[in-house]
């Protein structure tokens, strides 16, 4: 298991991060999983034995139960783990007050204290904003996060699901105000969703922001178990309206290539899809989820080999989406001046 530095920081995290959306059972959605503390402990310990030190959760996952289950699973091994959790959304437990959501100082301070209690720890390694709050100024959000770092309750801060201009504004605010800057950005990225290659990945690399990838298998679609033209199997995320690809035909063309490479390699299509993301430029860590030990062991095995150049080229070609404006214009008209970071 390779370790990679998280952005500009000196913190090293494993290239695989175990996600916890399958932990707990309060959310009631079958596709999320219903793992108990005992089941989750087995997955957490299996991951750690394989070299994983990075675990991602959120306060809203299973109405806080995912944090509780993760904290219980890490009992006795907390010092060996890097815990990342998130704040932004309303807890799905019936609370509906006007301040029970967003990135205000009020909500952040209340939420971090609750997360610390549920996790059974006195510090959070990486505290992430879970989304965009267009109402709260970055100055307020980042000052609150900076205070938590100075108080020792949080060690690093990160963001999730921002546009390039939103993340750029946050980093500029941190620099201007002398506040803790986002060390990482957690984004969706897979062979079925490559839009982040246009701005978010180059921007993160230029600014020294670590990239955490969620849904590298497109909600399980890239595991190769679903067939072209068929109804999504019950219990999958596609079946409940999540992770429907923008271009299903291109995605299933990609799955055909995944299966071919997997057969030749004697590995699963899921491993091939994970390997492609793990080798992506600027990617720090890939968040995987698992419902059982078999899934987890298969996903972890993706760290033990590499794609051949011709295999990666085939996957790149079949999954490449059309360029939107102004990228197609720059590609057509400005090719005489390659980007500085593309020079030999």
Automatic annotation (TrEMBL):
Record Gene3D superfamilies:
NADP-dependent oxidoreductase domain
| Keywords, in A-Z order | Oxidoreductase
InterPro entries given in the database record = AKR_Detox_Biosynth (IPR050523), NAD(P)_OxRdtase_dom_sf (IPR036812), NADP_OxRdtase_dom (IPR023210)
Give the transmembrane ranges. none
Has UniProt tagged this entry with the keyword Plastid?
no
Domain (NADP-dependent oxidoreductase) spans: 15-319
Can the keyword GTP-binding be found in this entry's annotation?
no
PANTHER family found in the cross-reference section: NAD(P)-LINKED OXIDOREDUCTASE SUPERFAMILY PROTEIN, NADH-SPECIFIC METHYLGLYOXAL REDUCTASE-RELATED
* Identification of the protein by name: Aldo/keto reductase
Q: Which organism is it from?
A: Streptomyces glomeratus
